[in-house]
Amino acid sequence: xxxxxxxxxxxxxxxxxxIAGIEASVYKIEIxxxxxNLTIPTNQxxxxxxxxxxxxxxxxxxxxxxKAKIKRTMWSRRAAEYEQKINSGDIYQIxxxxxxLNKNTDMPVDQSYSERQLFEKAYDRLLGEVSIVLKISEEExxxxxxxxxxxxxxxxxSNTPA
Length: 162
Known about the structure:
Strands 1-2-3 form a three-stranded antiparallel β-sheet, with no helix packed on it. It starts with 9 loop residues before the first strand and ends in a 13-residue tail after the last helix. It contains five helices and three strands, in the order E-E-E-H-H-H-H-H. It folds into two domains: 10-47, Thrombin, subunit H (Beta Barrel); 54-149, CarD-like, C-terminal domain (Methane Monooxygenase Hydroxylase, Chain G, domain 1), CATH 1.20.58. 44% of the residues lie in helices and 16% in strands. Helix 2 (75-88) packs parallel to helix 4 (113-134). It is α+β, with helices and mostly antiparallel strands.
């Protein structure tokens, strides 16, 4: 498993392609969640990283428990910085975005559309890696992330009469 810019993927093959008469070696990468197949030249592997270690996941979860650090700059500038952090692929930077954009509420009116989109993108990336590294289901992963974020866990109750 590897982590390209688009999310968690798996190298399915290393092939040779001829492009404009030049032979190049490429990784074929499958990102199952997004139903995406990537072809990345092997000399561009600096854009790939292995999955995080258990220690890195634990540090990322501890970042979520920290206090949000929100700069007092214009939203457009902060949004660009958040997008850059998400696309960096760095688990700690992604955790910072989740922490900073987290609102301890399920009320969508408390966040703008673009805030919600960035939060969900970062949250999903972090969730995917946490679930795979810890070998737990996505639901268990969500519970771990939400607990670290201090979100209230709402238990579903049955509405069937007794």
